[in-house]
Specification:
The structure holds two protein chains of two kinds. By secondary structure, chain A is mainly alpha-helical. Helices cover about 35% and strands about 5% of the residues of chain A. Chain A is built from two helices and one strand; from the N terminus they run ααβ. Chain A is flat and about 55 Å long. Chain B is mainly alpha-helical. Chain B is built from seven helices and five strands; from the N terminus they run E-E-H-H-H-H-H-E-H-E-E-H. In chain B, the strands form two sheets. Chain B has a three-stranded antiparallel β-sheet. A two-stranded antiparallel ribbon of chain B has the order 1-2. The longest helix of chain B is centred in the first third of the chain and has 27 residues, at about 30-55. Chain B is globular and about 55 Å long. Chain B starts with 10 loop residues before the first strand and ends with a helix. The chains are: A mainly alpha, B mainly alpha. Chains A and B meet through helix 1, helix 2 and strand 1 of A and strand 1, helix 1, helix 2 and helix 3 of B. Strand 1 of chain A pairs parallel with strand 1 (about 10-15) of chain B.
């Protein structure tokens, strides 16, 4: 017997987070954790040959 | 704001050229490959959005959890797009961070409306939910293109043109590309066309309205 797929609901479960403008301003602030998470996400998702692209160093800093 | 943990990279970034360079070969990374990298990352972000929306639709997660997951992928995709356009994490300035926060804030404003429509039933829990959610991942493409445009304007480039991406083209993009070289900042933004976040067009930049130097950008 095949397992039944869950059926879509009419409405989502639970209440939404009621974001105020101030909440969104706060959420938009970029933290160190955000940067670290995004950096890891890029390394995990980019083509293997380019996964360190965003870790590039500036050429002038190396005398390049 | 601290930079991410320093990781060894196979690339350097040339500020004068506004290009990534393969450290092993010394050659610039073709812009097409840079855009391919972004597309892969944004595809992954769009996949996260679809997955979260599927789980929301069948009741595996509640609406508040969906909002949190969508917020996280908005930040990941927008930050990756800004960093890619800006030469990598280590090259981003305070002004770049402020600009990125505004882009994220804009997306979160749209997301708030999306969540309200889900709660009220205006947005159905059907296939349109996943497609709409995926747009939040793909929105990073417009951000990277706009970052590129912004930095080229700051560097003194005077003209821009729209180059069609390797995809089907909407009438808006065909019209924009047909206008050829125009003063920088005057052509429609990527993402504002009928193809919206699916747009794969890019901007090219030049000091003159004859495109001097633009060809070198891809050939180098």
């Amino acid at each position: 017997m095949m397992a039944a797929h869950p059926q879509p609901l009419k409405r989502p479960r639970g209440q939404p987070i009621r974001w105020t403008d101030r909440d969104l301003d706060r959420l938009a602030v970029i933290t160190d954790a955000d940067i670290a998470h995004a950096a890891q996400f890029f390394r995990d998702s980019a083509p293997p040959a380019l996964r360190t692209l965003l870790d590039a160093t500036e050429e002038d800093a190396l005398g390049g | 704001m601290a930079e991410p943990r320093v990781a060894a990279s196979d690339f350097t970034y040339s500020h004068p050229a506004r290009r990534y360079r393969d450290a092993a070969t010394g050659r610039f990374v073709p812009q097409g490959r840079v855009h391919d990298a972004l597309d892969a990352v944004l595809d992954a972000a769009a996949g996260r959005a679809r997955d979260a929306s599927q789980r929301l639709a069948v009741g595996q997660i509640a609406l508040a959890q969906w909002q949190r997951e969508m917020t996280a992928l908005v930040k990941d995709s927008q930050l990756a797009a800004v960093a890619l356009g800006g030469g990598g994490w280590h090259q981003l300035s305070a002004a770049d961070h402020a600009w990125a926060e505004q882009r994220i804030r804009d997306q979160l404003g749209y997301l708030r409306g999306f969540a309200e429509q889900l709660d009220s039933g205006v947005q159905c829990l059907d296939g349109t939910l996943e497609a709409r959610a995926a747009m939040y991942g793909n929105a990073g493409r417009a951000t990277q293109r706009e970052m590129d445009r912004r930095l080229n304007a700051q560097a003194g480039q005077q003209f821009e043109r729209r180059a069609l991406g390797p995809a089907d083209h909407c009438p808006d993009c065909l019209d924009a590309a047909a206008r050829d070289w125009q003063p920088i900042g005057t052509l429609p933004r990527i993402g504002d066309s009928a193809c919206a976040t699916n747009c794969r067009c890019v901007f090219e930049f030049s000091m003159t309205d004859a495109g001097d130097g633009a060809a070198d950008q891809e050939a180098a």
